[in-house]
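Q: Joint fold for the lines below.
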Amino acid sequence: MPKSVTIFTTNTCGYCSMVKKYLSNKGVSYKEVNLDDEPQRQQEALALSGVLTVPVTVVEKTDDSREVIVGYNLAKLAPAIA
Amino acid sequence: MSKVHDLIIIGAGPAGLACAIYTTREYIDTVVFEKGVIGGLAAVTDVIDNYPGFPDGVGGLQLSDALQKQAERFGAKIEFGEVQKITKKDKVITLHTTDGDYKTKTVLVAIGSEYKKLDVPGEKEYYARGVHYCATCDGAFYKDKEIAVVGGGNSAIQESIFLTRYAKKIELLVRSTIKASSVLQKELQKYIDEGKIVVHLNTSVKEIKGENGLVNSVVINEDGKEEVMKVDGIFIFVGLIPNTGFLKDYVELDNIGLIKTDKNLMTNVPGIFAAGDVRSGATLQIASASGDGATAALRIREFLEHKKLATY
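A: Joint structure:
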C-alpha cells in the first residue's frame, strides 16, 4: 500500500471518476485536488506531470519515492499502488 | 479448463452496457471488459441532449454511472483490461487479454471509436501540452485563455459551447461548412453573437506550433490564405475512427475498419457479434448504440439456445 495518493481532477472528467472508482475498489484512500475548485493549483499539476490534462495521480510510496501517473492508465496505476 | 462464460462483452459503452442489462436479466452469465472509461465517449461528453427520457438533457458521466449501476444490479461483472487478440477452437472463443485468457461461447464487440487525429506537424509533439481531444477533461486548464476548436460536426460544436465556460475566446476552425444539427447551430449562434466563438469556414490546420513545450499558435489556411493564429490550446473533434486493429485478419471489416455484420448483428465468425459505433452502418448515436446492444442481446440469447437466427 502506498503512503499517500493525491489525484488532481476536474468536475466533468470521466477518466478522473474511473481512477477514483479504481482506487476505492482496491481500498486505497486518496486526497483529491479539484482544479475547478482550486484553479490556482493547475501549475502544481503541470509541474508534476508536464502536461495540461487530468487525472494526474501522485503516489507517494513507503520508501519516499514518488510516481506520477497521467490519465486512467491501469498498466501504471495497478503496480504503483500494490 | 478455465470457466467458459456465456457472453463476454468488449467495451462498457452504451451498446455494451445495454446488452449486459438485457442478458444478465435473463441469467446469461455475462462479463464486460473495458480498457478505458465506463461509458466510452459518452462519459467524456458534457451534456447529452438527445437521449430519450431526459427532457433537460443528461450529463455524460451521469448517464454512464446509471448504465453501469443498472447492469451491475442484474449481475454483470465489469473487468478492467484490454483484449489483445481473439481465437476460436471448436465452439469456444478465447479472448487473450492483459489480465490473462478468458473463454466464452459468444462475444459482443462494442468497443466504440475514438477521435480521429489531424495528422499535422506538432500534433503528437504537443499532445496534452496544448493539443487535446477531451474538453471535459482538459478544458479547465484554459480559463480566460484563447483556444481553437477544430471540426464542424456535433461533437465540435457541443464541445466548443462547453469550453466557453473556461476560455475567453474560441476560434472554431471548420474545414468546409458546419454540419452539426440545427439545434446545436442555433445554440452556437448565441455564442457567436456574444463574440465568444468566431467561426472560420473553409479553414484547415497545417501545423501546430509551440514554445517552452506548450502550444502558442496554429498555422491555418483560410480560404486559400495561410496565416499564423495565436492560441493557447487546440481541441480537435474531426470525426471518429474505429479501434479494430486487434480484430484484423479475423473478423471481416469494411474499408474504414468498421466491423461488418449481418442483420442479426453477427460477424462472419459465428458467435461473435458487434454493436454500436464500431459496427459498419451504425448511425453513431448513443440512443442507437443502446438499441444495438438490446438487439444483440436478443440475438445472442437465440444463438446460445442453438436456435437458427432468423435472416429477415
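Q: Anything notable?
A: The first helix of chain A runs from residue 14 to 25. Chain A has a mean pLDDT of 91.
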